[in-house]
Design a protein that fits this description.
alpha+beta, Serine Threonine Protein Phosphatase 5, Tetratricopeptide repeat, Nucleoside Triphosphate Pyrophosphohydrolase, six-stranded mixed beta sheet, globular, binds nicotinamide-adenine-dinucleotide, binds magnesium ion, binds zinc ion
Length: about 500
């Protein structure tokens, strides 16, 4: 959006403002009344005139924010505080408009009134992105400031680091407690403790829809101690301590000796019991252990996805490392499920720290390669992809290899394109079984494509507009991966970087 059209969209003539004044007063009056009479009769009393007056009020607030009229912004907010996060044309808030036009004092005032600085407009930009794009550094610094002052310590850091699916840390892992066997045992029988049941590395979930393919959300089935206590002593059971809930929920039964309440602990259990028998333990309808994790685990909400990423990766490690990789002896599970120690007392793995004793993570680079003209990106497809789907190139980092070198090597191996500068964007745990996807942007220094047919069926340069159309669902020949993948987020990030605000 250009500056002129922005102004035009939010400007009011002084005439129309006079006409609106009485409607606005109606709204002020009506908001006071609403408080007195309660919300129930609100709908009944809301006339169409009042509705349009509310729209006018919002328009005036957005206009004042865009013009930097601090007095009017403050007056309107004192009467109608809810205006602060309301959006107008293309999802723009007052904060975004003030940030766009460089009105520092308005931005400051809106923030002090508790404005949501993380809300995004229809192009997925925050007020911070907008201020940065238009070169209002004093405003982007203000918006980027964190309460702990980390912006000052790391001046180049981006406080709006992309949060990817599977990356939300809902639990406090409390790693120091993993060696406290007494505490762990107490937690196991605590009635507030939450257990997740896994079978063949899939968590038990209940789905909101009968039709599993209809794209409905699924929820983790949560169990209490009483429902799973018979499974705990079984030799094939793997029990992983996941952490304690971060939120501080008051609970009568979770009290320590000194009366301080502790949040519930979470454990994951993987057993060799028959899945159909395990399912009988759940009282919910439509329970299952998903068979295709690549697809089905993407239906969880962000909080539960983060917990599953942790649990599934650790459980997958145990299932693959049953015996000591150093001497082949049997191993035992320790430290709340975060360590496997060899039972052979002469084993080298017991001397010093051995990485084979701890859960493994495989780093993978995933990159959106940008054409030297800046206006096209390189996407490829594997044979197994659905028809029309193209994604970012990706590959495992090899031992002794830096992230940037892995990006250059994998892109050249898979597409024949040479890459120059590489920039890290964000990362994503990908529990299939235990990858860490390291998302980068990379700039090509050659453009001829020659694909490695063993890995890639086809790779192509896609013009920006075609990619944007695909996001809107308006390009039948190109589909990008779903939003839960970092590939999707990298492509979106590139589009957002250059959008015409
Ligand atoms: N979340 C996302 O957006 C996203 C997108 C693409 C890929 N991925 C994941 O990234 C992974 C790696 O991508 P890729 O398949 O293109 O990698 P790649 O190009 O390195 O090729 C994979 C091949 O590398 C070899 N390999 C080397 N080290 C390996 C290891 N530690 N584990 C398994 N195989 C290894 C195997 O022969 C394998 O077939 C995929 O398996 C997939 O799970 C995630
Ligand atoms: Mg690859
Ligand atoms: Mg490869
Ligand atoms: Mg590779
Ligand atoms: Zn050993």
């Amino acid at each position: 959006m250009r500056a002129e059209s922005l102004q035009a969209a939010f400007n009011n003539s002084s005439d129309s403002r006079q006409q609106k004044k009485c409607k606005v007063q109606n709204v002020l009056h009506s908001e006071t009344e609403e408080k007195q009479h309660g919300a129930e009769d609100k709908a009944a009393r809301m006339t169409s005139l009042q509705l349009s007056a509310k729209e006018d009020m919002l328009e005036r607030f957005l206009d004042a924010s865009a013009r930097g009229d601090l007095t009017q912004v403050s007056t309107l907010l004192s009467h109608v505080p809810s205006l602060i996060n309301q959006t107008g044309y293309s999802g723009w808030t007052g904060l975004m408009l003030a940030a766009r036009n460089g009105h520092y004092n308005v931005v400051e005032a809106l923030l002090s009134h508790g404005c949501d600085k993380f809300s995004v407009n229809s192009s997925s930009q925050t007020a911070y992105d907008i201020a940065k794009f238009w070169g209002h550094r004093h405003i982007s610094n203000l918006l980027g400031r964190t309460t702990d002052g980390s912006q000052r310590v790391l001046p180049g850091s981006d406080p709006h680091q992309q949060e990817n699916y599977f990356s939300r840390e809902t639990l406090d892992r409390l790693s120091a407690k993993r060696t406290d066997t007494v505490w762990l045992e107490e937690k196991q029988s605590d009635p507030d403790t939450v257990y997740l049941l896994f079978s063949n590395l899939s968590p038990m979930v209940c789905s909101s829809q009968e039709d599993d393919n209809a794209g409905g959300e699924t929820k983790l089935c949560r169990f209490r101690y009483e429902a799973v206590k018979d499974l705990l002593p079984k030799p094939a059971t793997m029990l992983i301590f996941l952490g304690v809930e971060k939120r501080k929920t008051p609970s009568s039964s979770s009290q320590t000796v000194d009366g301080i309440q502790e949040p519930p602990a979470w454990f994951a259990i993987n057993t060799d019991e028959v899945a159909s028998e395990l399912l009988k333990r759940c009282r919910e309808m439509n329970c299952s252990f998903p068979k295709t994790p690549n697809r089905d685990l993407l239906k969880l909400n962000e909080e539960e996805a983060g917990v599953v990423a942790q649990a599934r990766s650790v459980l997958a490690w145990h299932s693959r490392y049953s015996f000591c990789p150093t001497c082949g002896s049997s191993t035992k599970l320790e430290e709340g499920g975060y360590k496997r120690s060899c039972l052979n007392l002469d084993c080298r793995s017991l001397k010093g720290v051995h990485n084979t004793c701890y859960p493994r993570v495989d780093p993978v680079v995933i990159m959106l390669v940008i054409h030297p003209d800046g206006n096209q990106c390189l996407l490829g497809r594997k044979k197994i992809f659905p028809v029309g789907m193209f994604s970012c190139l990706a590959g495992f980092i090899e031992p002794g290899e830096a992230m940037e070198e892995a990006v250059r090597r994998e892109v050249e191996e898979e597409s024949g394109v040479k890459v120059g500068p590489v920039q890290y964007v964000s990362c994503q745990p990908w529990p299939m079984p235990s990858n860490l996807m390291i998302g980068c942007l990379a700039v090509a220094i050659s453009t001829d494509i020659k694909v490695d047919e063993n890995e890639i069926e086809e790779a192509r340069w896609f013009p920006r507009q075609q990619v944007i159309d695909s996001f809107r669902g308006a390009h039948p020949a190109l589909t990008v991966p779903p939003r839960q993948t970092i590939a999707h987020q990298l492509i979106r990030h590139w589009i957002g970087m250059n959008s015409n605000l």
